[in-house]
Amino acid sequence: MRKRLQVFVSSTYSDLLEERQAAVSAILKAGHIPAGMELFTAGDDSQMETIKRWIDESDVYMLILGGRYGSIEKTSGLSYTELEYNYAIELGKPVFAVVIEEKSLEQRVRERGMAVLERDKPAELKRFREIVLSRISSFFAHANDIRLATYETLHDFEKRKQFVGWVHGSEVPNVSELNARIEELESENNGLREASSGEQVRRNTEDDDFPQLAEDLLHEMVSVPDQLREDGLIPPTLPIASTFWSQRKPLIKGVDNAYNATKMAMFLFDSILPSLTIFGLAESEKVAGVQWRRYALTKRGVRLLNYFRTHPELRDRAMAPLQEYYDAADARLAQG
Q1: Residue of 148, 98, 158, 159 whose CA lies nearest to 275
Q2: Residues 64, 240, 303: CA angle, nearest 5 degrees
Q3: 272: which DSSP letter?
Q4: At 6, which helix (H) or strand (E)?
């Protein structure tokens, strides 16, 4: 039975509509349940108590902090956003936050005007921002940054935290029904065929997020070591998707960190494969009798490569940053 986590998403509202939608979309695509109180009107005396009940029932608290402090609760003088954050901390809920970059906020002011900037209580916003950044948090410039941070953090929480979570009623086993089903299956000759069909349905469902996952890998950048840029034709940073596609053969075969590993192998091992592991595209294993470890793509990772193979526009976007390097290589081959 797979537990679905309820994630309470907290933020100011009108200035962060796109960012909230990105978080909600990522939570849903990860198979979890988003919750939030943006539809409640500020100043409602019962609002905070209702919010507390929702946070009580949630497994994870997520904060998106932009350039606004938010509506003020009259009794405490604090914004509802800060009160929600403080309450989640008091409960000991797993909390993570994404905070807007200063440069990105300045750009928003130029594009959208002063409505995205806190003018009434800038000192309170600065204080709250410092509190948030003292705990688990990351920065964002665009909605894609929030989507990726949500994927990564929820995946990490699933591995490290013990949650109550939610389980669909249909997934709770009934012993008598299971026994009857076992007897029924024993009399069927087509069991293997049904199992194979069920596996294909499950696989198709797991791969429904490939379009968004491909976009995330195209936007997530990784630094390239200087020793791999000796000819100056490879950019200092590349999308993960560029290396994922261009180095698909060694990724499928497996990459280790043995003492004689190549520079490219160590780059894949240290910088690319850990990120792919977060999305279930790769896995690490300890090889018996040796001191080094090995990464290899999972079946899901191989299926994503096939997804790139069948979508030429994705391949072209992935390879565009490396085009100068490959053009130069082709020229050297042509010259003998």
Answers
A1: 148
A2: 105
A3: I
A4: strand 6-10
Tell me the sheet residues that pair with 79. Answer: 72
Which residue did the predictor score with more confidence, 107 or 174?
Answer: 107
Q: Which amino acid is at 126?
A: K
Residue 41 has pLDDT above 60, yes or no: no
Question: What is the length of the chain?
Answer: 336
In a domain, 258, yes or no: yes
- What does the pLDDT average to over 239-267? 88
CA nearest to 27, candidates 151, 137, 169: 151
| Residue 322 amino acid letter | L
Question: Six-digit token pair at 142?
Answer: 């665009």
Residue-range definition of the domain harbouring residue 263: 213-334
What is the spatial distance between Cα 192 and Cα 201, in angstroms, rounded to a whole number? Answer: 14
- One-letter amino acid at 229 equals R
Mean pLDDT of the chain: 84
Examine the pLDDT at 169 and tell me if it is beyond 90: no
What letter does residue 72 receive in the DSSP assignment? B
Please check whether residue 179 lies inside any domain of the structure.
no
Task: Indicate the number of domains in the chain.
Answer: 2
Residue 65 resides in a domain? yes
Please check whether residues 112 and 254 belong to one and the same domain.
Answer: no
**Which pair of structure tokens corresponds to residue 279?**
């999305």
Mean pLDDT of 169-179: 58
Identify whether 204 is part of a domain.
Answer: no
**CATH code: domain of residue 15:** 3.40.50.10140
CATH of the domain at 247: 1.10.10
pLDDT (tens digit per residue) in 278-299: 888 998 876 766 777 888 899 8
**Residue 276 identity (one-letter amino acid):** L
Tell whether 151 and 257 lie within a shared domain: no
Question: Is pLDDT above 80 for 165?
Answer: no
Rg (C-alpha) for the chain, rounded Å, is 24
pLDDT value, residue 284:
83
Residue 304, φ and ψ in degrees, nearest 5: -65, -40
Mean pLDDT score, 57-72 = 94
CB atoms within 10 A of CB 271: 16
Whether residue 229 sits in one domain with residue 88: no
Lowest mean pLDDT among 37-41, 264-268, 317-321: 37-41
